[in-house]
Specification:
With about 240 residues, this protein is mostly helical. It has 8 helices and 2 strands. It has a two-stranded antiparallel sheet with strand order 1-2. The longest helix is centred in the C-terminal third of the chain and has 32 residues.
Length: about 240
């Protein structure tokens, strides 16, 4: 059976065609600019003082292996950070794709898969390119396997939850429901990124760069949906 690009967005509601592309391009450009600015500061070592100060501010001055706050806060951070790990990302994506398939939206389901997969590839390529070592000032309270810049958890949680939110808000009719979905996506992404610094496995600039690129990728994904949705409307 033939499968055209416009099939990816059939079943999604459209927004104002004149404003959405402009807004998404602006947000994507801002995200990319912020990422490059942080990367430049990181490469020149001009952000090291800020990274060090913030990382140490979250640890007991007498014991750098002990994060500030009660013991339950560390456990909470470990549970929150898992929301940006690949096991839960895959489960979340599978659940949303299953919902889209159950509601007879195979195109958007395939689009969600492509968008998140593309974000994963970009994240890994950026990590390999910059190859920044992990923080060595404090003990790591979570298992790590890859380079530090940008934060994969921060970037992928932003990519996944904002991309999925963008799809969901095109399905629901209620403005309140749309706002709720977007707010939840932003809060979860922010919490995941903050947990990476608290656990000592990322410099703050790693997380900021991950957020910036994640927002850029999610915006580009939303832009692609808008463009393809308009094409689908014209051809349909």
């Amino acid at each position: 059976m033939a499968f055209s690009p416009t099939d990816l967005v059939r079943g999604l509601r459209d927004f104002r065609p004149a404003t959405v592309p402009v807004v998404m391009i602006a947000i994507a450009a801002a995200g990319i600019f912020a990422f490059l600015a942080i990367a430049d500061e990181m490469a020149e070592g001009e952000i090291d003082a800020f990274d060090t100060a913030l990382l140490l501010a979250l640890r007991n001055p007498a014991d750098s292996s002990d994060p500030i706050g009660p013991s339950w806060l560390e456990e909470t951070a470990l549970e929150i950070t898992a929301l940006g790990g690949y096991p839960l990302i895959v489960l979340t994506l599978a659940a949303v794709i299953g919902f889209l398939l159950m509601t007879r939206r195979p195109g958007p389901a395939f689009y969600a898969f492509l968008s998140v997969s593309g974000g994963t590839i970009v994240s890994q390529l950026l990590k390999s390119f910059y190859d920044r070592p992990r923080p060595d000032l404090v003990a790591h309270l979570d298992t790590i396997h890859t380079a530090s810049f940008p934060s994969g958890h921060a970037m992928m949680s932003t990519v996944v939850y904002l991309t999925l939110a963008a799809l969901i808000v095109r399905i629901v009719e209620s403005s309140a429901a749309r706002a709720y979905v977007l707010v939840v996506a932003v809060l979860v992404s922010a919490a995941v990124g903050a947990s990476r610094v608290y656990l000592g496995v990322h410099w703050p600039s790693d997380v900021a760069a991950g957020w910036a690129m994640g927002v850029a990728w999610a915006s580009l994904s939303w832009l692609a949906v808008s463009v393809l949705r308009r094409r689908a409307g014209r051809s349909g």
